[in-house]
Amino acid sequence: MSMTAPHAPTRRTALRLGAAGSLLGAAGLTAGCGSAAHSEGTSALRIAQPSEPTGLDPHLESGLDGMNVLINIFDTLTMRDTENELVPRLATHWEATDEHHWRFRLRKGVTFHNGEPFDARSVKFSIERLIDPDTGSTIVELRSVDHVEIIDDIVMAEPDPVIPEKVSLFGGVMLPADHFADVGAKGFAAHPIGTGPFRFVSWRKAQLLRLAAYADHWNGRPAFDEVHFTAMPNPASALAGIQSDAVDLVSALDPEAALQLEGYKDVSLTTHPGIRMYFVVLDTEHEVLKDARVRRALNHAVDVPLLISAVLNDSGREAATIVPREAFGYDPDVKPPERDPDEARRLLADAGHADGLTLSFTASNKDQLVSQALAGMLEDVGVTLELEILEPGTFAERLASDDPSSLGSMYLTGSTGWTLDGEATMQSYIRSDRKRSRIRSPEADEMIDALEQTIDPDARLKTFRRMQEWLHDEAPFLFLYQADQNFASNKRIEWTPNVNGTLAMETAR
């Protein structure tokens, strides 16, 4: 739907919206979620998250909610632990033998859920399928890989210094080559087979996705017999779920909605630092936004600390660029834009917009309150936003499409730089040939190429600094915040997330 928001919402407004949604949420639970904690002697961990996977082919899924399910079915070559360290998973050791070769030693005795052994053939098939253009994957992190050789080598067409980090999540899921050949891509997506701690059982879309513990997992059987995922896009539904004991864990809990659970008996609210960066992509070829003075004005007009306080209940940290603080390459000397509405008005007047201007703005309805707050702040300096708020699935489809104009001249997005290297988000949103980029700059392309292909860490740090200074000066994004992770849980579960926020339930007790 399209609408224009007249002003920023207050926290009280947000709570009213949440309360109004509670009734709808409770109704939705009655109609949809049929999961039970204990059924026929089975212990099930019941999880609510904002959305479902778009599918169960791990090479075609780039959203975090989808990966929350898949990371329980599929193991990766490496992983991040709760201390953010890169540690072994299906690969026990790794090393760069030269600029074009990474060698991985694989764990022995691992089997897929159908009994097929995991081996170097699995790695070769999985990675070469991921990078094959015919697969149509939007996961770009392994673009430098040329092929895999079965002496445990991954051979690079171009040097890439962070391949071990890139096979820790989306880029590292391992598929069974023989089974895939038998059932094909559609058959595999309908019933995925991995080596992970849980195996796929069933999926009633818009209702319940069930996984069961894999008794022969190489790292031991998980504590819970089953894990159930239910999508609850309305925060009020998630609140109703945890209050009525229909779910055990709510992830990505809306910060304002969480206020309603404070002091609620038997419900714990926990907040953990996260690495998901929120920013507004500005189309630098748009007739108005191609002027850097306009882009800088937008950044001066938005009071991000107020946004974090009033809308996010202080659940986030102000961002200077699109690199999270915990990532390699983050530069603390690059400061966020100064909040100065007068300077914003001056820049807009210099650019020929003294009487104001109107811009289109697209966002997911998960970020509706933030979008409305941005509209209110920009209205104050004479910029009117025509908001198009989409349901999350539609927004995700447009974000992944080949049409760069499908989300309009400005869109709000969140990106999790899961490799914990500053290159992660930059490579998707800056280099001119990437789907999500709205930037056409040879200088920026040259810096991204250097970050992707330079092995020397000191040289990369220098380029990261240049890149972040360029972002600060050219302002191709409206820089917002680094979001915390908010969870609500009952007493049935003990679990600690890692910084990338995925719901890997192997360690849940």
TrEMBL record:
Keywords: Signal, Transport. It comes from the Bacteria. The keyword Transmembrane helix does not apply. PROSITE patterns: TAT (PS51318). Residues 85-433 form the Solute-binding protein family domain. SUPFAM superfamilies: Periplasmic binding protein-like II. InterPro entries: Peptide/Ni-bd, SBP_5, SBP_5_dom, TAT_signal. Belongs to the bacterial solute-binding protein 5 family. This is ABC transporter substrate-binding protein.
